[in-house]
């Protein structure tokens, strides 16, 4: 008799819940009276009863009631849930109020893991069908309760949880469709600026990129990650600094390179000249500081891209710096930078480029002048005397050094001949490498280290000539008064 009571009670509970309506109607349940009026149900009650009686009575006493109790509890829970949904639908409870009723708490990360999220989704679906003019959504409900930024960050974090990946993926899709914010707003909501260059390797970046694609598809817009980072990090200079730093990070390097290329393309499409990029990167205030700034490499990369797009131009970093600061200021700053370990290689490279640029300009003048003189006179001595009078011995000596190093083949040959003639004259006049510096370049004998690089190069080459001519080293020490 006890077993029969359990069966009747279990069947009554299950059948009572079986007629809950679908999402399209208000949830209802059958009454016990309706269940008893169904003859099929009566037959179902008697069949299991006979089957159980063929088993061991002791087993029946032990197992049957426990299993049926579980069924009863499950059915009762579903009935309670349906009653709750019905009552809130009748009261037209909004999403936030229903979320609070579910006691999902104030931690969005924990809420996303809860099975109650399914109940919330069911309620939202039923609510929208019952009240089509006042539709609500799960994502808007979560955002209203927990806040935009908290929900965005929690969805990113929850993506890595395999148990909720389907739920979270749907919420992220809904978030894109529902969001009325700009790309800049989303950047700020995700607090990417707080991550510095690590923002390039965080999952939050995926959310931003998804939103950019969504906005561009929806509005046929021209939003980009480069634009978002420029606005979010307070300017192109800051973005360039972050990208350069990110190149040293294994996880961020690839994305940093992509973003740097995007930034350069953005500048090219905007018609930026190298001078404009120099100012954009704030390399235009102080040449000494500019040479220490990692953004100088970004300028160099842009100039390379600029020359590729404009093959008739031959821009360079040293040319851009010189045009802005002047030859003398750049030369002085490069000499200083060469003495510092962190900037030594870069300064040496730029100095070589500078010498080539200077030599090119000076050689054009010198070449034209040599042609003019050769048309009126002959012999290197006469030519040398004429050039000395025109340029001065020290300046001519510098020109000849540059011509030998960077000139065309014909100019190098001519410069070598003229330098030999000049050095022969100095040798005849009793000069040594020290007196060349003190007499011709006006360097204080007690401060020979203050001589310019060009002057030191001339003195060094004359010293080699002197040793070859005399067959002895010239370890000359400064003369003391």
From TrEMBL:
UniProt-listed Pfam families: RXLR
Span of the signal peptide: 1-23
Major site of localization recorded for this protein: secreted
One annotated Gene Ontology cellular component of this protein: extracellular region
Keywords recorded for this protein, A-Z: Secreted, Signal
InterPro entries: RXLR (IPR031825)
Domain of life according to the entry: Eukaryota
Cellular compartment(s): Secreted
Assigned protein family: Belongs to the RxLR effector family.
Record protein name field: RxLR effector protein
Organism: Phytophthora fragariae
Lineage per the UniProt record: Eukaryota, Sar, Stramenopiles, Oomycota, Peronosporomycetes
């Amino acid at each position: 008799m006890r077993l029969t009571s359990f069966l009747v009670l279990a069947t009554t509970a299950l059948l009572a819940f079986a007629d809950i309506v679908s999402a399209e109607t208000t949830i209802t349940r059958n009454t016990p009276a309706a269940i008893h009026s169904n003859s099929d149900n009566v037959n179902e009650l008697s069949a299991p009863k006979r089957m159980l009686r063929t088993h061991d009575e002791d087993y029946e006493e032990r197992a049957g009631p426990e299993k049926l109790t579980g069924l009863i509890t499950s059915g009762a829970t579903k009935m309670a849930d349906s009653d709750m949904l019905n009552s809130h639908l009748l009261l037209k409870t909004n999403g936030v109020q229903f979320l609070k009723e579910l006691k999902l708490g104030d931690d969005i990360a924990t809420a996303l893991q809860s099975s109650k999220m399914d109940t919330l989704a069911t309620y939202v679906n039923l609510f929208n069908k019952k009240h089509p003019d006042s539709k609500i959504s799960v994502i808007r409900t979560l955002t209203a309760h927990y806040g935009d930024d908290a929900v965005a960050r929690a969805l990113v974090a929850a993506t890595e949880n395999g148990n909720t990946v389907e739920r979270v993926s749907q919420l992220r899709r809904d978030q894109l469709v529902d969001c009325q914010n700009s790309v800049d707003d989303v950047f700020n909501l995700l607090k990417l600026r707080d991550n510095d260059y690590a923002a390039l390797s965080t999952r939050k970046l995926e959310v931003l990129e998804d939103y950019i694609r969504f906005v561009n598809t929806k509005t046929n817009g021209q939003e980009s990650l480069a634009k978002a980072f420029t606005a979010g990090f307070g300017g192109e200079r800051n973005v360039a600094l972050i990208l350069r730093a990110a190149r040293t990070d294994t996880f961020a390097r690839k994305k940093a390179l992509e973003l740097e290329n995007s930034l350069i393309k953005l500048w090219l499409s905007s018609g930026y000249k190298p001078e404009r990029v120099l100012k954009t990167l704030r390399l235009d205030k102080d040449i000494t500081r500019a040479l220490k700034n990692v953004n100088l490499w970004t300028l160099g990369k842009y100039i390379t891209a600029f020359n590729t797009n404009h093959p008739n131009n031959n821009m360079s970093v040293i040319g851009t710096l010189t045009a802005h600061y002047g030859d003398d200021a750049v030369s002085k700053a490069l000499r200083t930078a060469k003495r510092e370990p962190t900037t030594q290689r870069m300064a040496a490279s730029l100095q070589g480029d500078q010498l080539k640029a200077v030599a090119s300009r000076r050689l054009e003048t010198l070449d034209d002048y040599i042609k003019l003189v050769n048309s009126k006179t002959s012999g290197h001595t006469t030519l040398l005397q004429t050039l000395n009078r025109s340029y001065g011995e020290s300046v001519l000596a510098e020109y000849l050094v540059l011509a030998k190093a960077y000139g065309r083949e014909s100019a190098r040959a001519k410069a070598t001949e003229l330098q030999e003639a000049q050095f022969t004259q100095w040798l005849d006049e009793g000069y040594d490498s020290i007196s060349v510096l003190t007499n011709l370049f006006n360097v204080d004998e007690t401060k020979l280290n203050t001589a310019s690089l060009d002057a030191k190069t001339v003195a060094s080459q004359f010293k080699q000539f002197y040793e070859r001519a005399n067959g002895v080293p010239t370890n000359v020490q400064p003369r003391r008064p």
